Each structure stands twice: as structure tokens, then as C-alpha cells.
Amino acid sequence: MPEPVFAVIPLTLELWSTGEEDLSADCLNDLHSFNRELQKKIGIAGFKPYQNNTLQFPITDDADFKMKFAGASYSVGSVLVDVDFFRRHEYRLKIDRDIIEVQQLTAEKLLKIVSEIRQIVRKL
Amino acid sequence: MPSVLRAITYSKWWKNPGVPWLLPGELQADALRDIRTTSSALSVYLITEKIPFGRVIAALAAKKDSLSRVDYVLLELDFLKSQGFALCSTPDHGKTFDNDVNKIHYDIVNLSPLKLYQLAQCISRRAAAHRRLCNNDEVAKFIVASINSGCIDENMLKDRLVRKLRNFR
Q1: Which residues of A touch B (CB under 8 A)?
Q2: Whole-angstrom Cα distance, residue A43 to residue B15?
Q3: Which residues does residue A82 pair with via DSSP β-bridges, in sequence order?
Q4: Is the predicted pLDDT of residue A18 greater than 80, yes or no?
Q5: Coil, helix or strand for A48?
């Protein structure tokens, strides 16, 4: 069985660490895309709000990977979402070296990602 | 019947050449970004006879760097309440250059991701039935009217916008 590969999703953890009924719509604003052009070292400056119905994340095969954010607040962290999640739910994917691009995102598919992240954060 | 006005960007809501993959009934993810919340609340403005919608359009457009059309949707208050949405008057949150328009600022509050999606569906259906926009000329005339009546201070506007408005003075 191939080793799992994970999308590294940066988050403001306090937005996601609430009871299910209290999850704020603000968490949708917290979904950011990795921007290689802005990236000089691993840090928050390398991300921008998602646009064009696309999300981009770095990928890793390290199940213990934790992203470092230079100069960011204590509440900024990251979660790992198994790339298989996106495949199982038939997201349109493009994988290029160490980046996964989730394309043609509908609002419905975005909410599914939110739900998946929420479940992962609850287990942290 | 009182309604609230929300400016939107139609290209983020419709199936258009930029999103050929969008199926009937689906919403783009960008639509949720177009109505992004702050502290679980979405900013809207109440339209009544007291403050005509042209003044609200002018107030929203006057904040921009240049002259551009305004796409918007109107949602009846009764309809929003029947769909389970709660609104609060939040004049302190109005950030336009027209103080009277700021006083009619409301927030649709307590929005979770699912509730925002449900609101997006309401907006999409309403916008599909009654597509509303003010083109550049209409927006310019509304802004000039608000300036001439003293509702907006022209000195607050960006230079590029002021230059564009000269053709309408």
C-alpha cells in the first residue's frame, strides 16, 4: 500500500476549535492558498486568500509535519488532510512537485473541506 | 416592504465562460468569498423610503479607487426572517463616507458556514430572478448627486474617481 500523502493546510486554530454549532463562517476566510511566488521561506507570507475557485497547498508524506510560520501569532498552525480525501470525493486535482492544486471548487465542495478540517481539528 | 441591499460580484455567482465546469444549481466557491463574514456577520444596508437606494449605491461606490458598476441584490426583511436569518442594526459598522447611510447598516448575524451557504443560495435564486446592477453612468450620477447634496464630501474620494466624475458634473 502506498504511503499516504498529506495536504498541509494553514489555519488560525482558534477559529476552528469551537463546538460544532458555534463554528463561524469566518473559517471560510481562513482557507488560504499557497503562493510559491511569495514564498521565500516557509511562513505565513507564502499564502493568500483563495480565489478563482482554487486552493493550493504544499504536500508532505510526513504525518508529523508541522508548518512553521515566521512572525505569526500563537494561534496560527496547520493540519494535514490526506490527499486520498480529495480523491475519494472526486475533487479535480493537479499535483505538481510539492504542491497540490484543488480546482473547480464549488461552494458545496468547499463546505466538505471545512467539515473534514473540523473533524481533524477536533481530534487534535 | 423593507429590503436590505448587498453588493455582490455577479461573475462569482453565475455560470459564465470562466466556469464552464459549473453544473446547474451549483454555486462557485468564490461566491462564498464574495459574501465573506466578519465575526460571523455579513454587512448589508437597509433600503427604505427615508434613504433611497441610489444614496446607498453612491456610498458604496464612493469608497472605491475608481468608477465601476455596482452589482447588487435586494433581500426582503420578511423573507430573510422566514428563512431563519437574524439581523441587527449596527450603525457603528457602516464605513461609507455618507453618515446617514452608515446609520442604516445592518449585520446578518450568527452565520455558520452552513448558514452562509444557505444565505448564498437565497442570494443566488434572488439574483437569478432579478438581476440588478448600476452601470458606470448611473453610479457616477448617484455619487455626484450625493456630493451636490452634501451627503458625501468630495475630498474623501480617491483622485482617480474624482477625475472620472468630472464628466458627470
Answers
A1: 21-29, 49-53, 92, 104-111, 114
A2: 35
A3: A6
A4: no
A5: strand
B128-164, pLDDT tens digit by residue? 777 788 999 999 999 999 999 999 999 999 999 999 9
* End-to-end CA gap in chain B: 33
B64 CB-near residues (< 8 Å, 6+ apart)? B158, B161
User: Whole-model pTM?
Assistant: 0.91
**Which amino acid, residue B85?**
F
C-alpha cell at A39: 514564498
Q: For residues B57-77, b (16+ Cβ closer than 10 Å) or e, as one string? A: bbbbbbeeeebeebbbbbbeb
What are the chain B neighbours of A105 within 8 Å (beta carbons)? 28-29
Residue type, B106: Y
Residue B36 to residues B8, B56, B120: CA-CA distances in angstroms?
A: 11, 20, 10
Residue partners of A120: CB distance under 8 A and separation at least 6: A79, A80, A81
Which grid cell sits at B162? 474624482
pLDDT one-digit tens code per residue, A36-54: 766 655 555 577 889 999 9
Q: Give the residue from B14, B15, B33 with the most A CB atoms within 10 Å of its CB, the best one to mutate.
A: B33
Q: Beta strands A92-96 and A6-12: pairing type?
A: unpaired
